[in-house]
């Protein structure tokens, strides 16, 4: 038979509540909150780095496909455009020499035939006035 002792009964451990100190002096609710914030931050970071957005409808899928195709076409056409400095004059930059092409006109043929230099002097005066 068992003998009765006069010792007090063994003390039960305190029940775990939200105010129970768990680790480093932090209470249980603080530890759970820090862990939840960390997990949420990881999920948000991964979603920002990897575009893991799932289109919901067929219409959205088709719209995104059309947008990607338009962007690709635009990028291909953009590669064929010459650099900006070839398209426009830069203010204060070097003045590009005008290319004068010989256009066969009646007056040009007459001047050439007579060997007149008077016409070229008039052109210089006109260029100076501009």
From TrEMBL:
Kindly state which keywords UniProt assigns to this record, in alphabetical order: Membrane, Transmembrane, Transmembrane helix
Q: Where is this region: Disordered?
A: 85-130
Q: Has keyword Cytoplasm?
A: no
**Where, by residue number, does the polypeptide cross the bilayer?**
28-50
Classify the source by domain of life: Eukaryota
Question: Where is there biased composition of kind Basic and acidic residues?
Answer: 96-130
InterPro entries xrefs: TMIE
Q: Which residues form the signal peptide?
A: none
What name does UniProt use for this protein?
TMIE protein
The organism named in the record is: Hemiprocne comata
